[in-house]
Amino acid sequence: MPNSAVVIGAGMAGLAVARVLADRFERVTLVERDALPEAADFRSGVAQGRQVHVLLARGEEILERLFPGFREELLALGAVELVWGRDVRWYHFGGWKQVHDSPFRSLSATRMLIEAVVRRRLRADDHVVIRDRTEVLGLLADGDRIEGVKLAGGERLGAELVVDASGRESRAPILLEALGFPRPRESVVNAHLGYSTRFYRPPEGVTFPWKFLLIHPTPPRSNRMAAIVPVEGNRWHVVLCGVSRDYPPTDAGEYLDWTQTLASDEVYQALRLAEPISPIWGYRRTENRRRHYEELERHLEGFLALGDAVCAFNPVYGQGMSTGAIGAELVGALLDKGRLGRDLSERFYDKLAGKLVVPWLLATSEDFRYPSTEGEPPGRAVRALSAYIDRVLRASVRHKATYEAFLHVMHMVSSPAALFRPDVLLAAARAPRADMSPAPTAPVTIERTETPPEEQIR
Question: 208 φ, ψ to 5°?
Fold first, then answer.
């Protein structure tokens, strides 16, 4: 077993890869600039930590393998199980997805809780040392081979493998350039989407026909979306989103009114009965950014980057935590095949690039629906594929099997081939044009209480 590895960054990708390496190295040092909280609290190094996060089913599966009992622990701490066909009311491409029996499930919780559960598990691993309040200033190398990292204060930490999981703000290109290695080319696609997020207490005595409510725009005619997401603590995690710089308000007096401009007034009708229990937090760093390490002809051997440090997605699509977990598992698979051979970095980036094709295509093709999106536009083949996906999405409004197939692809548990099954092809061919009329509101049941729900808001 090799002696030591270093992981830079204690976000979800860093925590996952540290667990992978703990089975393959005698000592794994996880270095994090932030002070890491013991509980499920916000930390400044995750600027979007208070925003809504979605753990896709593929990410949940990987985290359960890495941390057995992860799912049960989240549920015990208040995470909400979603049965998508029954619990999720989704207005998408001009219509409501049909309610149907479906075995497809996922968990809903805040990023803070998910990270705290995984971090607590990792702290109990004898092979892992977590050093917070510690900053990496440089990489140590002998020629083309990594030897460790240089920390603030002058300390040198030796390692046979260094993994950068420091997120969107990764300094890896700069640190590599300082050692004479080329910077990777970057692709950026920016739809200029902004968030405004707030926690609410659901109203007592009111029954809604959903657990998770999502109002999606139908671009280019609409730019605004919103979601009400159930999370631990009997709370609603509410996010308002605007694309093309049509940013939602962070002013409490304007927040509720803005929801009346959505395609459906269902979010407004729910929030007017609920109690706001937090400030409003805005976030606008949402561009898709991919660093093409797979194109480099020369690599620093033994140095890998993954998660948002390689490919950061528009967060609205919920791909970040799951793609970070996928990258972590890939590291383990390659180490098991070749240990620390001289081509580890090249093999990792080549295989990771293949795994990023679909989520990158889904995110950027969705963003390019908006005319103001900036970035290199997709080629003819990608445009043709996007046009077909449009038809699939329109079909998924009325065709339950197509909706189910799309869910499996969206959650990364099935390949895009599922969207080309004969029944899905036929449904897509028959798909009508999107209906742009206002969406109707589902009825809610207000149980008899001593105080009307409208008067419960304080």
Answer: -105, 150
Could you report the per-residue pLDDT of 309-350, keeping only the tens digit for each?
999 999 888 888 999 999 999 999 999 987 677 789 999 999
155 Cβ partners below 8 Å, 6+ apart? Answer: none
Closest Cα partner for 284 from 191, 209, 207?
A: 191
**Is the CB of residue 151 less than 8 Å from the CB of residue 31?**
yes
Tell me how crowded residue 381 is: count the other CB atoms within 10 A of its CB.
Answer: 8
Token couple for 434: 């999107």
Q: Six-digit token pair at 322?
A: 């799951």
Q: What is the pTM of this model?
A: 0.91
> Residue 194 is encoded by which pair of tokens?
């902004």
At the top level of CATH, the class of 4-48+112-187+288-363 is alpha beta
What single-letter amino acid sits at 262?
L
Length of the chain: 458
Alpha-carbon span 373 to 192, nearest angstrom? 7
List beta partners, residue 213: 89, 228
Coil/strand/helix, residue 400 = helix
Closest CA to 304 of 344, 338, 357: 344
Q: What is the amino acid identity at position 241?
A: C
Q: Please give the Cα distance from 123 to 125 (Å, whole number).
A: 6
Residue 87: which of 105, 114, 71 has the closest Cα?
105
pLDDT at position 51 is: 76
Half-sphere exposure of 197 (CA within 13 A, CB side): 19
What value does the mean pLDDT take over residues 93-104?
86
